[in-house]
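JOB MANIFEST
job_type = single_chain_structure
chain_count = 1
residues = 506
[input]
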Amino acid sequence: MNIRYMFRSRLLWAMTLSAALTGCASMQSHDKLATDMQSASRNGGIPAALAQLESTAKTEEEKVALLFNMERGELLRMDRRYADSTNAYLLADNRVKEWEEAAKTNPEKLMGTLGAALISERLKVYEGQDYEKVWLTTRLALNRVAVGDFENARVDIKRTHEREAIIAEFRSKETLAAEEEAKSKGAAAGGKELNGYPVETLNDPEVLALKNGYQNALSHYLAGFMYEVLGESGLAAPGYRKAIELKPETGVLEEGLRGLDNRTSFTWKRRQRMTDVLFVVEAGDAPARKPKAFTIPVPTGRGMVTASISYPVIEPSTDPLLTTLSAAGTDLKLEKVVDVNVMARRALKDEMPGMVLRGVTRAIAKGVMQNELQKGGGLVGGLIGAVASAATEVADDRMWRMLPGRVYIARGYLPPGEHVVTVNGRALPDPVKIDGQYALVPLRLYENTVLMGDVASLGKLAPVGSVPVEAAAPAAKPAARTATRTTTSKPVANSRTAAPTPAAKN
């Protein structure tokens, strides 16, 4: 091999390495960004976390990116800037709509393993996790409810169901395509290539119990609740029923369906003197995807070379569970209906076959290039190839990190008025004002703070001294719907000595 050829080969690989590293460098670790946001929030609250995030978007393209606007929308929601939050979510939703259109009309475009994915997973355009796509319309619906826009909330709920159907059809096609391509390349989809990977994180009972990685019981229970308060009990029942299917043996979900006819009857409405209150309590943070590196042998014309390969790992959550919510002398059982950590691991489990295939394909391609460089440049050339392979093989750590880690709900009847509310014996910073026939109370336990959202009050209670049931007039038109604003969030000290009150049965 002459010196000129060696020089050209090394130059080529140096240029390849430079391009790859430049591309990867432009993709800041999202885990680091999330850590920076959380650190900023501890020092300066949610506005500081928002400023930290916004400082990372320099170009117009970055300002309309999917993940940026999902994170931004959530921070704005936590700060009760609902209009701004909705606008951010809508920008993110536009990106998801583009994905939906491609999934319906050109699914092969989304299934491809060529292009950027052959250099690094992190160079792919972020399309969002499937459960994130569903969360997006659910968040939009909750924002609408907070400002009293119930008709548009109804539209968002309907879009949630439509989105789930598109995801289901696309993933079915993708799984089949991945299996066929794996066979053609001699790579077992999810088999021995995962040697050393902590598969127990993907195969624990909670993960396996999920029907899929994108549907959640909260979205469907909220659908049932919203249809109920809008007087559409025929549509409410399927929502409650689906929530039970997704999270069986959950008392609050079962009671939603079981008590529907009684709650929506004319007689009950005329007698009702208590507010039907739904508490949505969110706690913790969404999990992180941590890259884990492996090396695998790759056959070449000159024997075996070692190639670097990287997959993400999601560690199980160890956060303590919430059990009891108390208000007005009443104990309500808090029941977990969504665990984002479990959903994320289920989504990763479903994603892994295609990810393994792309990883092996990259490893083979990089192994062949490394071999060619070694032939032209000897030991030095091989070293350059190994460095390039390792530098560009970093698992994608992008996820919607500002989502809550877990969501609990409790539902019961409370008298109208202001009430001190405690969660697991920990008092909220301000009383919660309850009014109307129905009320939805959103709470977010974040760091050492309780963020109290706007309480939505829907309908009016029957006035004292109203016409007796026996002589009741025909049902009146639905009462005006309003949204009641609560006080701002304040830090809450941990109540280490307070023991949770035993939960009452639903």
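[summary]
The longest strand covers residues 290-300.
Confidence is low (pLDDT under 50) at residues 1-26, 467-506.
exit_status = 0
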